[in-house]
Design goal:
single chain; alpha/beta; Protocatechuate 3,4-Dioxygenase, subunit A; 2 domains; five-stranded mixed beta sheet; globular
Amino acid sequence: MRNVTLENITGAVVGALSQDVPSRQREIMTSLIKHMHDFCRDVNLQSDEFLQACDYMARAGAICDDQRQEFILLADILGIEVLVDMLSNETTGDESESTVLGPFYRENPPVLPAGASIVQMDFDGQETVLIEGIIRDASGAPISGVMMDVWEDAPNGLYEQQDPEQPDFNLRGRFETDESGRYSFRAIRPVPYPIPEDGTAGELLSFMGHHPWRPGHIHFMLFKSGYRTLVSQIFDGKSEYLDNDSVFAVKESLIGEFKKAPSNVDADLVLEFDFVLKSQDS
């Protein structure tokens, strides 16, 4: 097109998509182009603002490494990750609800025996907790051999890859359910913490006038062949910020109750929490 105008630029870009582009790819790109062009028109975006945005994205990319994914963090702050999660993992029955993976997941934590502790380092004021429950299918039958990844922040509000003082894979582990579908491990009661504000995420929070705090929670990833992988969290029902989580990830069904442990349990608290997995073909 040799005469681009405000009125025809969007159609020109959409029209440049090749006829060989797969249908889903075409659907995504067409919508993306239209929405981005409409956004620019809606706010009357100026050249200096456009350049500032490009610089911002470049700085966000420079922060990313194998320890931190800044773009996931930005998506969390904007509620995009939790929205995509709900679109991808719609609940249609009694299966457990999913929520965001977050930026601090690490693959291949150590595999530990049932009842073992993920705590490699003690902190002043920590409360230890025995966490156990049963994983079932949609019919209520227990599922054995489910692998469960767990990870949480320390009482200082930091995940181990953020804190050089913590041992590698501290407060992380992998456990397998037994024949009765039961899992069990020991951890520390999670505390509220601020999502990282030292980079572009902090700039975005400031731009929005929003706080960075998340309620106390423990991350879970449950997987077994034949079932849909469940990425979820358990939130402490007594924690602050349940009603205004900075990444909008709290769901009522994922709030657990930390109770005082009986005298015969080697922990300060106990938490009982069951999960229901959906079969892969349902």
